[in-house]
């Protein structure tokens, strides 16, 4: 069977455009950042409270570190993904072409803007 499974409107592409993929990219980066941040927060929380006995205050400190680091990383990676996606869509619409140059330019502009704020 060589027919397509999905019914597409006349003239529609079979692949997703950069704008449609932007939502997946931003959400995926936020979730990845939250997971990485939570693991990093657990590591930091256990390290900082290693001299304490297992008790409610230690558990609360560890949970606070997990949530704080998870939110920090999710926000950072989500913001970077938003910038990258926005630059990519703007460049694609401006140039009128879908190619690798858009991806390189969007990544370069995102990196330049991120580093211009003085972050390491």
Structure description:
This protein is mainly alpha-helical. It has one domain (21-111). 73% of the residues lie in helices and 0% in strands. The chain has three helices and no strands. The protein has helices at 18-48, 56-95, 100-116. Helix 1 runs antiparallel to helix 2 (56-95) and helix 2 (56-95) crosses helix 3 (100-116). The chain is elongated, with a radius of gyration of 21 Å. The N and C termini lie far apart (54 Å). The model has no long low-confidence stretch (mean pLDDT 86). It holds the Pfam family Tim17. This is TIM23 translocase. One of its GO terms (molecular function) is protein transmembrane transporter activity. It is found in: Membrane. It comes from Sapayoa aenigma.
Specify Rg, calculated over alpha carbons. Answer: 21 Å
Number of strands: 0
C-alpha end-to-end distance: 54 Å
The arrangement of helices and strands along the chain is: HHH
What portion of residues belong to β-strands?
under 5%
Oligomer: single chain
Shape: elongated
**Can you give the mean pLDDT?**
86
Unreliable runs, pLDDT <50, ≥5 residues?
none
Judged by helices, strands and strand pairing, the structural class is mainly alpha
- If helices are DSSP runs of H or I spanning 4 or more residues, what is the number of helices? 3
Biggest sheet architecture? none
Percent in helix: over 70%
Pfam family, one: Tim17
InterPro entries: Tim23-like
Transmembrane segments: 21-42, 72-91
Membrane topology: Multi-pass membrane protein
């Amino acid at each position: 069977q060589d027919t397509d499974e999905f019914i597409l409107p006349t003239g529609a592409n079979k692949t997703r455009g950069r704008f449609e993929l932007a939502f997946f990219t931003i959400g995926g980066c936020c979730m990845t950042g939250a997971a990485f941040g939570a693991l990093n927060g657990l590591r930091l929380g256990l390290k900082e409270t290693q001299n304490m006995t297992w008790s409610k205050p230690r558990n609360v400190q560890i949970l606070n570190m997990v949530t704080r680091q998870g939110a920090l990383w999710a926000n950072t990676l989500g913001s970077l993904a938003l910038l990258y996606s926005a630059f990519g869509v703007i460049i694609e619409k401006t140039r009128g072409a879908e190619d690798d140059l858009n991806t390189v330019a969007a990544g370069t502009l995102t990196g330049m803007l991120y580093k211009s704020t003085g972050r390491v």
